Amino acid sequence: MGRKRSAVSCGVAVTMMTGVGVSGLPSVAHAVEDGGMVTIAEVLGCEEQTEFPESTADDLLGGALKIQPWGSINLPILGPVVDIDWGISPFRHPSWETKFRSLRWVDTLVDMAVNPDVDMLKRTLARNLAEGILKDWIKDNRLYDPSPLPFTWVGASAVAQRAEGLLCDRRAFGEPAWMDQALLDHGRFLTNNWSGTWNHGTMEAITLYRIGCITGDTADRALGKARLVDSFKANRLGPVIDAEGVTNEQAVGYADFQVRLWNKAMRTLQACGDSVPDIMRQRVAKLPAFLAAATQPDGTLVQLGDTYKEPAGIVAGTPLEYMVTKGQSGPRPTKRVSVFKAGYVFGHSGFGQSRAFDKESFYSLRFGRARQVHGHFDHTSITYFAHGIPMLVDSGHDGYQDSANRDYLRSQAAHNVLMVAGVKAKDVETKLVRRQIEKDWQFYETADRAYGMERNRSVLFAQGPDIAVVLDRTAATSKTHSFRQLWHLDPGMKVARQKRGVAVAVPNNGTNAKLWMIPVDLDGDRIRTSSTKVIKGRTLPRQGWVSEGMLDRQKAPVVQMSRSGKAAEVLTVMVPTSKQASVKTSIKGIGNGVKVLTVTIDGKDHKFKLSSGGKISAL
Predict the structure, then answer these.
(1) DSSP characters for 533-599?
(2) Which residues pair with 570 in a beta bridge?
(3) Which residue in 27, 339, 554, 581 could disulfide with 491, CB within 3.0 to 4.6 Å?
(4) Is domain 367-578 annotated with CATH 2.70.98.70?
(5) Is the pLDDT of residue 323 over 90?
(6) Separation of alpha carbons 182 and 166, rounded Å
(7) Which residue, 305, 279, 281, is CA-closest to 294?
(8) Spatial separation of the C-alpha atoms in residues 451 and 107, rounded to whole Å
(9) Residue 437 has what DSSP assignment?
């Protein structure tokens, strides 16, 4: 059928889990017998890599296909001979198209075809359908097609995903010449196309290496290995994993993916008889510590960059296991505060020793090099988790379809930062210029020129009790600007404005928690009530949205605190408390530009010193 684009009907949805592929070549690695069925046990080219459940095969035999999280479609097989319209895009989404044209859903049919526990007729039907689909794809999508469909011969990572499935599937078909030729075509493409030192390039290098190892093509094998090894060297994007165990993707969720990806790379090297370089083994081993530091008290990863709200995969025997299981198993972390040179600060009040694990507080702060790969324009932004709930949040990630919402989610406007109204932010490096780590409080200062003027953020996080003090400053300019400090709240929070610009937020689910957001005039004057505004679900310009997963878009409150002038000096105090607590603040100068900020919680004073240069410390 080729590439005609058409609409198809939707059907019943099926839940998806991780599937299991067929065995690879026993001469290269060992297969494992499990109840008579050949399954996967670190077999070269044939690990557990398809996301589709076994039920997908039954659906396909019934003429349906479901790709999560979208609905089910009627498989577009036309006539008695398999002839598929590979150009369909029923949901008009690039991720659906990638998954469809990767052919990984065909793996479930191949699994069924080699499963002795399935009756012979069904096995034969599965084999015939799988062979028909694969042959039709090969016929309709030639390597040197002058106008290939997206994600066929456009995008090397999609080619790598499809080739991994073909490596497995060829074994079930007795290694026929038509599949060997398809693999050679994929090898040629991957040889000439490499995405570089990030997850796409890693997937491509692994697949190219596997093709070379299985087919005996020494050039493919050598090039694949070289690309894997070179990924740890200095390059434009920085090493794929640095010496502290941080990826160059600028997204916490991709560190989780890289754990699985690089462990697969190391197993592949070993299965083919090559040694694993020490630098690869050592840096991959550090990834779980980074993920543990980035895990909130609810067991989910903080949403920084292209990251969904979900837990990282457990790496047994590491502090990450402890964090994901919320203290139920694994070794407890020993480091409460972690600062990574790549641009992350993560702080925990503790790990369940002095209070319940899920009642610990957590914060993050972003800085570092200009945006790249899966990063957002989130420099200087903070997040804050306390009293059992996420309070200040990143606006998240909803997938990879170009849209107004994706543009918004990556922009400065979707993060907890100081913006300059009417001035377009530049993509610049943000430096961490000062820090002081104490047992019960920590201070950080960042600096950049995102708006053309020096922009500094000083922030102190205290844990006894939990308090955050944020001071934003800019250099003076010749023009008057409107400066806007943004505070994005979890979708489950509702906000009320009080006098003098104070805002308080409480959760909708009845949790006994409250977040006080208190603007403080550094001269002790009263802040105008009108300086604080609450925005939720606005579309023009877009503001007040949070995305926690693919296709997810939720209205969420944003507190905007505004000031006008030729320079900004905006001080805000964040205090998470119970709903019954009372909080007030005051400030006074004590000479030489030094001021003392007092935060009073239920009648008890907590004092902080603010120097003229922006340094904040607890007294």
Answers:
(1) EEEESEETTEESEEB-STT--EE-EEEEEEEEESS-EEEEEEEEE-TT--EEEEEEEEETTEEEEEE
(2) 472
(3) 554
(4) yes
(5) yes
(6) 8
(7) 305
(8) 51
(9) E
Report yes or no: 393 and 362 within 8 Å, Cβ to Cβ: no
Reported as a pLDDT band with limits 50, 70 and 90, residue 529 is: confident
CA distance readout (Å), 521 to 305, 524, 563, 589: 33, 5, 10, 12
pLDDT for 129-168, tens place per residue? 999 999 999 999 999 899 999 999 988 888 999 998 898 8
CB of 102 closer than 8 Å to CB of 165? yes
Structural tokens at position 64 = 């349906």
pLDDT of residue 335: 96
Q: What are phi and psi of 618, to 5 degrees?
A: -85, 145
Contact at 8 Å (CB) between 130 and 110? yes
Return the domain boundaries, the chain.
10-191, 232-357, 367-578
Distance CA 443, CA 433 (A): 11
What the block records as the tokens of 534 is 């609450």
Residue-wise pLDDT tens digits, 446-477: 999 999 999 999 999 999 899 999 999 999 99
275 DSSP assignment: P
**Cα atoms found within 13 Å of the Cα of residue 481, Cβ hemisphere only:** 24
Range name among 155-169, 221-235, 598-612 with the lowest pLDDT average = 155-169
| CB-CB contact of 446 with 433 (8 Å) | yes
- Residue corresponding to tokens 């993707």: 249
Amino acid code (one letter) for 521:
D
Q: Which helix (H) or strand (E) holds 418?
A: strand 418-420
- CA 441 – CA 461 distance, rounded (Å): 5
- 308 vs 298: CA distance, rounded Å: 14
- Provide the CA 33 distance to its chain's centre, in angstroms: 36
Residues 6+ apart with CB under 8 A from 15: 53, 68
Please, what is the end-to-end C-alpha distance for the chain in angstroms?
74
Indicate if the alpha-carbon torsion angle 526, 530, 536, 542 is positive or negative: negative
Q: Does the predicted TM-score (pTM) go above 0.85?
A: yes
The span from the CA of 515 to the CA of 518, in Å, is: 10
Instruction: Specify the DSSP class assigned to residue 286.
Output: T
Report yes or no: 129 and 60 within 8 Å, Cβ to Cβ: yes
Strand 538-539 relative to strand 569-577: parallel, antiparallel, unpaired?
unpaired
Tokens coding 113? 């075809």
Percentage of residues of the chain with pLDDT beyond 70: 91
